[in-house]
Design goal:
Elements: E1 2-4, H1 6-22, H2 26-38, H3 42-61, E2 71-79, E3 82-84, H4 90-102, E4 131-137, E5 142-149, H5 151-154, E6 158-161, H6 168-177, E7 187-195, H7 197-207, H8 214-220, H9 225-238, E8 253-263, E9 269-275, E10 281-286, E11 316-319, H10 325-328, E12 336-345, H11 348-359, E13 372-374, H12 402-407, E14 412-415, H13 421-430, E15 433-436, H14 442-447, E16 449-456, E17 465-479, H15 486-494
Parallel strand pairs: 1-3, 2-4, 7-8, 11-12, 12-13, 13-14, 14-15
Antiparallel strand pairs: 2-5, 5-10, 6-9, 7-9, 12-17, 15-17, 16-17
Helix pairs in contact: 1-4, 2-3, 6-9
Length: 504
């Protein structure tokens, strides 16, 4: 019987959480590079390029690849021939590791967990507790799959129970088409089929963490009905034309996973789990011989890609300090802008407080007139950083506040993913614009921030209103002042039928 020391578990999980916050998995990067080379849509190609460029910067600087450093999920397999020394339960050890990892002074990670999901929703400040699943199995080892999943993709998980004769593939394609871009494609779509409701969800979540092997399937062809199904879904989902960040393009998924389990004869439970561009997970095996150390991937895994064109194709430069409604009217969907000047930040909690303040008839602590606002909750800075990784959050959550913000004189909003129809109408009515920064390019965005200070409501932590001074911050025009939307027109342009299955 092997005896595994609690300290080795804590250190292995702590180190793994730090590791996956910094490094993209090489298998994901390999497929993403292939997607970048093949992409024909300029906005989508630029978005993929920004993710790759930011991944290299994150690896070199040892900083988080995304500002949303995720909810920790651990799948554990404990061999019956292994014993964890001491009397502390495994989930307590994993929570200790999570606390240490997220409070690491050298690379602090953003705490996103709230203790009470219903009422106060108070942040736990250390990203605990983790979500732990334990399975007893044969052997003398403790196997751990450590993942950190962001809220944008987690919020897009879906579940249904189909009639036994209904098509899983059709439901998946229809569901992905309706997800929007808040899950930050291109990524992985993972499907769990069978068992009970909770089993199907676990199947999907666990399968999303398997190695990416779609490149092999495309080269060699399928060898089973499951692999045929995966290939069919891969082609059909990419055929939707959603593309990177929903901008319209060829690559929406880099892989599709399918896992099954026996189920009741009257049921067909199906879970859909999207995995975003921050594809963070590590596989560990503890044998009782000490903590597991993960070697950094080779720098060659992170390609050098230039995303800013020159000459006639150079992006439009925008001075935020002199921005006018007339200038905004000249922007067109799909074009890249480089923003410089003073930029406000504020997301969910700040918008809510703005609305409450105005409802009381009180003045705002910050004037919004003529300003641009960025939906972001950055990671705390370290060393000589002005701000930590600072990628966008999902803009749809701010839709209910759009009229209020635009009535206060906001000219441009920056986030990720699409806006609702009513919000698009409001943007057009006010002659404003909505811009997208690339989800998964948090380090690249942070590099553009030259100064940062809190202007109001420091008690909101990451959600406080800040002022960034930015230089050449890259964004894409997603909704223009006339109400055209790249998230509607881009996928429509790039949608195409999936190739017919090869004859056996």
């Amino acid at each position: 019987m092997s005896v595994i020391r609690p300290d080795d578990i804590v250190e292995s999980v702590r180190a793994a959480l730090q590791y996956i916050s910094i490094y993209h998995a090489p298998d994901y990067l390999e497929r993403l590079v292939e997607a970048w080379h093949a992409e024909e849509s300029p906005p989508a190609k630029n978005a993929i390029g920004q993710i790759l460029e930011s991944a290299r910067l994150a690896a070199l600087g040892r900083r988080p690849i995304c500002q949303d450093t995720g909810m920790v999920t651990v799948f554990a397999k404990l061999g019956q021939g292994a014993r964890i020394a001491g009397d502390r339960p495994l989930d307590a050890l994993i929570n200790e590791a999570t606390r240490l990892a997220y409070l690491d002074a050298g690379n602090p990670l953003r705490a996103s967990m709230v203790r009470d999901p219903l009422f106060e929703r108070t942040n736990t400040r250390d990203n605990t507790p983790a979500v732990t699943h334990v399975e007893l199995t044969t052997g003398e080892t403790l196997e751990l799959i450590v993942a950190a999943k962001g809220g944008g993709s987690e919020n897009k998980a879906r579940f249904t129970v189909l009639n036994p004769a209904a098509s899983v593939e059709d439901w998946v394609v229809e569901t992905v088409a309706g997800l929007g871009a808040g899950w930050c494609p291109p990524g992985v779509i993972s499907i769990g089929v069978g068992g009970s409701a909770e089993k199907a969800m676990l199947l999907g979540k666990r399968a999303a963490l398997d190695p990416i092997d779609m490149g092999r399937l495309l080269r060699e062809g399928p060898s089973s009905r499951i692999e045929e199904m995966r290939l069919d879904l891969y082609h059909r989902i990419n055929g939707l034309g959603i593309g990177a960040q929903g901008l319209g393009g060829l690559a929406t998924v880099v892989d599709v996973k399918v896992a099954t389990y026996p189920t009741h004869a009257a049921s067909k439970p199906v879970a859909l789990i999207p995995q975003c561009a921050a594809n963070r997970h590590a596989h560990l095996v503890l044998t009782g011989e000490g903590a597991v150390t993960l070697a950094p991937p080779p720098l060659s895994s992170f390609p050098e890609i230039t995303t800013v064109a020159a000459g006639a194709d150079a992006p439009r430069r925008v001075n935020l300090d002199t921005l006018t409604r007339e200038e905004v009217a000249g922007w067109t969907i799909g074009e890249t802008l480089l923003l410089s000047g003073r930029l406000l930040t504020g997301r969910d909690a700040a918008h809510k407080r703005i609305a409450e303040t105005l409802a009381k008839g009180e003045a705002l602590p910050v004037s919004l007139r003529g300003r641009a606002i960025y939906y972001v909750g950055p990671v705390d800075p370290v060393g000589d950083e002005v701000v930590g990784p600072a990628g966008p959050t999902t803009a749809t959550r701010m839709d209910g506040f759009t009229d209020i913000m635009l009535d206060q004189g906001v000219l441009a909003m920056i986030g990720k993913a699409e806006r609702g129809a009513a919000t698009v109408d409001s943007i057009a009515r006010h002659g404003a614009s909505y811009l997208v920064a690339v989800g998964g390019a948090a380090v690249l965005v942070a590099r553009a921030v030259r100064e940062a200070r809190i202007l109001a409501w420091e008690d909101l932590g990451m959600e406080a209103i800040r002022e960034f001074v930015v230089e050449d911050m890259p964004v894409t025009v997603a909704v223009d002042s006339a109400g055209a939307s790249v998230h509607r027109e881009g996928p429509a342009r790039w949608r195409r039928p999936a190739p017919a299955p090869a004859e056996s």
